[in-house]
Amino acid sequence: MKKHILIVPGDGIGQEVTAVGKKVLERIAEKFNHEFTYDEALIGHVAIEATGNPLPDETLEKMRASDAVLFGAVGHPKYDNDPSAKVRPEQGLLKMRKELGLYANLRPIKLFDELLSASSIKPEILKGSDILFFRELTGDIYFGEKGRKNDGDTAYDIAEYSKYEVERIARRAFEAAMTRGKRLCSVDKANVLESSRLWREVVQAIAPEYPEVTVEHIFVDAAAMMLIKDPKRFDVVVTANLFGDILTDEASQIAGSMGMLASASVGDSTGVYEPIHGSAHDITGKGVANPLASVLSAALLLDISFGLKDESNAIIAAVDQLLKDGFRTRDIADANTPADKILNTEAAGEELLKRL
Ligand code: IPM
Ligand code: MN
């Protein structure tokens, strides 16, 4: 298979982990006789530094022209405590999602058995957890009208959804549920928010088309509690942009570490694959970041954008083997991990390639 992949490392540890993700793609191409070509582009703080724009047109054009994008992270601490900054790295990410029509963000939360003890949640609660989140990614309070009034003393962000927007993400979630445990949980705040009442109405209207799928509707506050109390009760979860952002960070603790979680953003055109962790400037440049989320993002890319299931499974099996052999990066190590089994980013990549 011939494919063109755009590598967009972005900021902070995005650079370090995406380098490993790319090596894994190269190894897969070699092993399975594919011809992958690569290009690179800027986004986020590094793009602002180079061009003044967090998403340069050139990057967007390259994204549109590629078959898939392997993405790192965006963000820089210098903006976090400067609410008045007009240009911010995150604007690049949001614009990319909107421009490419990436309305569905898939975040699989799957615990590798070897990491049962890496989580702060009790192993007996966690064992067997396997959740697939569908986070809506181009609507909600993220993209509604926002601004200031009363001479800047009052600020607002509007949460808005159209039926069409809810329907297309809900359908994807129903379809996915059909291939899994046939249970769908729709998370909203319909007891308070009008946009959530529309959300619920639309999900209820579609449900009869999927009679085999058991649907439940849960308020987001209760869902946040149940995720930790009994994660196994969830199969597929579909929710709005902001709720999905928060719940998937929480759910990352089910998988042991943010450093293990990959995501796929898909929609009308090129798919974008990225770790759910951020740029993590506190550990940037130290070479200790966990590259496995980027590696698993590469696996999702092969599976979802290219339909290469065997290749994708080969990567997941290699990650599994690496963990079975006792290797850990710092974030997933515990008191029982021998010092010589704790790997830095590059070494983790090398050990992984050996197992591919
Ligand atoms: C994510 C991130 C982004 C989001 C930020 C960086 C804008 O947290 O992808 O989950 O809120 O969507
Ligand atoms: Mn987030």
TrEMBL record:
<dbReference type="Pfam" id="PF00180">
    <property type="entry name" value="Iso_dh"/>
</dbReference>
<keyword id="KW-0520">NAD</keyword>
<comment type="similarity">
    <text>Belongs to the isocitrate and isopropylmalate dehydrogenases family. LeuB type 1 subfamily.</text>
</comment>
<feature type="binding site">
    <location>
        <position position="135"/>
    </location>
    <ligand>
        <name>substrate</name>
    </ligand>
</feature>
<dbReference type="InterPro" id="IPR024084">
    <property type="entry name" value="IsoPropMal-DH-like_dom"/>
</dbReference>
<keyword id="KW-0479">Metal-binding</keyword>
<keyword id="KW-0560">Oxidoreductase</keyword>
<feature type="site" description="Important for catalysis">
    <location>
        <position position="142"/>
    </location>
</feature>
<feature type="binding site">
    <location>
        <position position="249"/>
    </location>
    <ligand>
        <name>Mg(2+)</name>
    </ligand>
</feature>
<comment type="pathway">
    <text>Amino-acid biosynthesis; L-leucine biosynthesis; L-leucine from 3-methyl-2-oxobutanoate: step 3/4.</text>
</comment>
<keyword id="KW-0432">Leucine biosynthesis</keyword>
<keyword id="KW-0028">Amino-acid biosynthesis</keyword>
<dbReference type="GO" id="GO:0003862">
    <property type="term" value="F:3-isopropylmalate dehydrogenase activity"/>
</dbReference>
<dbReference type="InterPro" id="IPR004429">
    <property type="entry name" value="Isopropylmalate_DH"/>
</dbReference>
<feature type="binding site">
    <location>
        <position position="245"/>
    </location>
    <ligand>
        <name>Mg(2+)</name>
    </ligand>
</feature>
<keyword id="KW-0100">Branched-chain amino acid biosynthesis</keyword>
<comment type="function">
    <text>Catalyzes the oxidation of 3-carboxy-2-hydroxy-4-methylpentanoate (3-isopropylmalate) to 3-carboxy-4-methyl-2-oxopentanoate. The product decarboxylates to 4-methyl-2 oxopentanoate.</text>
</comment>
<dbReference type="GO" id="GO:0000287">
    <property type="term" value="F:magnesium ion binding"/>
</dbReference>
<dbReference type="GO" id="GO:0005829">
    <property type="term" value="C:cytosol"/>
</dbReference>
<feature type="domain" description="Isopropylmalate dehydrogenase-like">
    <location>
        <begin position="4"/>
        <end position="352"/>
    </location>
</feature>
<feature type="site" description="Important for catalysis">
    <location>
        <position position="189"/>
    </location>
</feature>
<keyword id="KW-0460">Magnesium</keyword>
<protein>
    <recommendedName>
        <fullName>3-isopropylmalate dehydrogenase</fullName>
        <ecNumber>1.1.1.85</ecNumber>
    </recommendedName>
</protein>
<keyword id="KW-0464">Manganese</keyword>
<feature type="binding site">
    <location>
        <position position="97"/>
    </location>
    <ligand>
        <name>substrate</name>
    </ligand>
</feature>
<dbReference type="GO" id="GO:0009098">
    <property type="term" value="P:L-leucine biosynthetic process"/>
</dbReference>
<dbReference type="GO" id="GO:0051287">
    <property type="term" value="F:NAD binding"/>
</dbReference>
<dbReference type="InterPro" id="IPR019818">
    <property type="entry name" value="IsoCit/isopropylmalate_DH_CS"/>
</dbReference>
<feature type="binding site">
    <location>
        <position position="107"/>
    </location>
    <ligand>
        <name>substrate</name>
    </ligand>
</feature>
<keyword id="KW-0963">Cytoplasm</keyword>
<feature type="binding site">
    <location>
        <position position="221"/>
    </location>
    <ligand>
        <name>Mg(2+)</name>
    </ligand>
</feature>
<comment type="subunit">
    <text>Homodimer.</text>
</comment>
<feature type="binding site">
    <location>
        <position position="221"/>
    </location>
    <ligand>
        <name>substrate</name>
    </ligand>
</feature>
